[in-house]
Write a structure and sequence with these properties.
The complex is a heterodimer of chains A (about 160) and B (about 170). Chain A is an all-alpha fold. Chain A is built from seven helices and no strands. Helices cover about 50% and strands about 0% of the residues of chain A. The C terminus of chain A is likely disordered. Chain B is flat. Classes of the chains: A mainly alpha (about 160), B mainly alpha (about 170). Chains A and B meet through helix 2, helix 4 and helix 5 of A and helix 1, helix 2, helix 3, helix 4 and helix 6 of B.
Chain lengths: ~160, ~170
């Protein structure tokens, strides 16, 4: 049977379909390994992430969404933090601005608010909560001394100049 | 997604594209391509830009205006990839090489409008790629270096080419 599938994969199916099948199987293996690994992980910085500065609605942090937060390690912590509050420290400028800006923009859009409202009322909220877990950007706390211009924060202008 | 685009780049019955896409799927980066990292988005945009670029190269003989639009659009996509991950500037090498070849052909070969259009599209696309590298650093320069007395700014502000990327990479990493 394995031989049969192998023949189909290589000869009969359209190459894109074969690639799609291999892609799904490989990603399933990798994500299974990632989600079933025990403990807080080698890089425990994820447990320090705290998204609960939002006034409303109640935010999700790494304790409440431990499965998805297992993907937030190493550089991903930098990206999610930058998406949340913009570039604050100088070394964060080593990371490209494009990804965090896009995450921030999508989360602030009306589409995200719509999805988030639905996710709070529906029972199967896992895929929608992923956006919220990655960066709690819509509800910035007013104590954030962010200086990034593209966040359009009312706190703009603080920092070195003041 | 990346595998689909990778395959589109190549001819229909060649196996090189399939093998390349397969190797990319099982790449050693592994889980990093599923986590919130820039690598996967960057790869997607690179492949997208390459497919447009090759479309431009292939359709240059018959439909030169469409080829020019594709080349410029590919430059925009590469520029966006460069904003996401600064390795994207290497795609500018494509444009640089093509610009030399096209310029050479324009000056010493045919003085036609199509050739000029191709050269203009290549230069435009290349500039868009460079803009993807330049714009974030300009933003950082404004944040860190402008409207501050020179003796109080960071040390990289006073260099001839005040690039925050090079300074941060050497200082912190």
């Amino acid at each position: 049977m394995v031989q049969d599938i192998q023949t189909k994969l290589l000869r009969q199916w359209h190459p894109l379909f074969s690639l799609g099948v291999v892609f799904v199987i490989w990603k399933a293996i990798l994500l299974l390994i990632a989600f079933t690994s025990p403990g807080p992980g080698y890089d425990t910085s994820t447990t320090l992430l705290n998204f609960s500065k939002a006034p409303s609605p109640p935010a999700v942090d790494s304790q409440q969404a431990p499965t998805l937060s297992k993907l937030v390690r190493w550089d991903a912590i930098y990206y999610t933090q930058i998406a949340q509050r913009g570039h604050l420290f100088e070394q964060e400028w080593a990371f490209g601005t494009g990804l965090s800006k896009n995450i921030s923009w999508i989360s602030r859009s009306e589409w995200h608010h719509f999805m988030l409202d639905r996710s709070l009322t529906s029972t199967s909220a896992v895929p929608k909560r992923f956006f919220y877990t990655v960066a709690d950007r819509s509800y910035r706390s007013s104590s954030c001394p962010c200086r990034s211009f593209w966040l359009h924060d009312t706190d703009m202008g603080h920092g070195i100049k003041s | 997604m990346a595998s689909n685009l990778d395959h589109r780049r190549k001819q229909k019955y060649s196996s090189i594209g399939s093998v390349a896409a397969l190797l990319y799927i099982v790449s050693p980066a592994g889980i990093f391509l599923s986590a919130p990292y820039a690598e996967s988005v960057f790869a997607f945009l690179s492949f997208l830009g390459l497919s447009f670029y090759i479309g431009g190269v292939l359709s240059y003989d018959q439909r030169s205006f469409v080829a020019a639009v594709r080349t410029v659009f590919a430059g925009a996509v590469f520029g966006q990839a460069t904003v996401i991950r600064s390795n994207g500037i290497l795609a500018g090498l494509l444009y640089a090489m093509d610009a030399f070849a096209s310029c050479d052909q324009f000056i010493w070969g045919s003085f036609t409008v199509t050739q000029l259009l191709r050269l203009a599209s290549i230069v435009c696309g290349g500039l868009l790629v460079g803009l993807g590298l330049f714009a974030p650093q300009f933003e950082a320069y404004i944040q860190y270096c402008s409207a501050i007395p020179p003796q109080e700014t960071r040390e990289w502000c006073r260099r001839l080419l005040p690039s925050i990327f090079t300074f941060v990479q050497s200082h912190y990493w």
